């Protein structure tokens, strides 16, 4: 009798421990990346959607991130079994129907080589499957939309500056403006085109919660591209949404550079 119990208990214990570890992905906070389409379009040239959206749109969504600022790797059934049986990327078309219009406006694919549908599938595969919503893509995407649509986090309001074809802004000024307005440091990401730095993304770090609502300081305030130039040159162009003409920087922007 005792023997039987032990034999029965063993597989149950193994199953239990694998379920437990699979159900608690190990990450510290979420980061929400808001991208400035005009900067993306300067790097992407002809592969960029037209017309260029005039709002910051979502790029990566809520990215599960470790305390040291490293993004969690994507779900993999063998190497990164972070959640038990997450919804498959192929399920997105059906799952996201109820919020299609909000997604099209605030979370469009900026690359004309990828449909919105494909883009959202990639977001789910890279960020959603290891989030706290593995079975619930609708709630995962809605949580990100709710934050991105909240004017409290609108970079056009909290950066403290407006797009300009004549001025480059010190990244430190932008960071401090956001800190003053929302109380916490974001992370700024840059792109480089013709040897000039562009403001690419503003990323906000939210404490891990369902749903995430509380900001925290991001552990690093600039990505490696912004950091690839000396501090004195860490100034970014924040181009107007009209600043590209068929993939090239417009003449007034060039003339001012
Ligand atoms: C962050 O932490 C993870 C897990 O401990 C580690 O694998 C990774 O190398 C760290 N990254 C940095 C930039 O320190
Ligand atoms: C935010 O997530 C992106 C990937 O989605 C990652 O490259 C970046 O390092 C993260 N930044 C912070 C501050 O967590």
UniProtKB/TrEMBL annotation:
GO terms for molecular function: ribonuclease T2 activity; RNA binding. Keywords: Signal. GO terms for cellular component: extracellular region. Residues 1-22 form the signal peptide. One of its GO terms (biological process) is RNA catabolic process. PANTHER family: INTRACELLULAR RIBONUCLEASE LX-LIKE, RIBONUCLEASE T2. Belongs to the RNase T2 family. This is Uncharacterized protein.
């Amino acid at each position: 009798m005792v023997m039987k119990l032990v034999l029965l208990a063993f597989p149950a214990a193994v199953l239990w421990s694998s379920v437990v570890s699979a159900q608690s992905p190990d990450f510290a906070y979420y980061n929400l990346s808001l991208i400035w389409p005009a900067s993306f379009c300067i790097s992407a040239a002809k592969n960029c959607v037209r017309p260029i959206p005039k709002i910051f749109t979502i790029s990566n969504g809520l990215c599960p991130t470790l305390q040291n600022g490293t993004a969690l790797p994507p779900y993999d059934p063998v190497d990164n079994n972070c959640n038990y049986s997450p919804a498959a990327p192929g399920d997105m078309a059906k799952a996201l129907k109820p919020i299609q219009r909000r997604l099209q406006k605030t979370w469009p694919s900026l690359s004309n080589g990828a449909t919105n549908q494909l883009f959202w599938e990639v977001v789910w595969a890279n960020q959603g499957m290891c989030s706290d919503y593995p079975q619930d893509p609708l709630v995962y995407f809605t949580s990100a939309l709710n934050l991105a649509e909240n004017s409290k986090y609108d970079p056009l309001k909290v950066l403290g500056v407006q797009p300009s074809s004549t001025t480059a802004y010190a990244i430190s000024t932008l960071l401090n403006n956001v800190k003053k307005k929302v109380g916490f440091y974001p992370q700024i990401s840059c792109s480089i085109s013709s040897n000039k730095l562009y403001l690419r993304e503003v990323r906000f770090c939210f404490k891990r919660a369902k749903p995430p609502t509380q900001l925290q300081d991001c552990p690093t305030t600039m990505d490696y591209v912004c950091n690839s130039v000396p501090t004195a040159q860490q100034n970014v162009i924040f181009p107007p949404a009209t600043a590209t003409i068929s993939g090239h920087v417009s003449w007034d922007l060039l003339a001012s550079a």
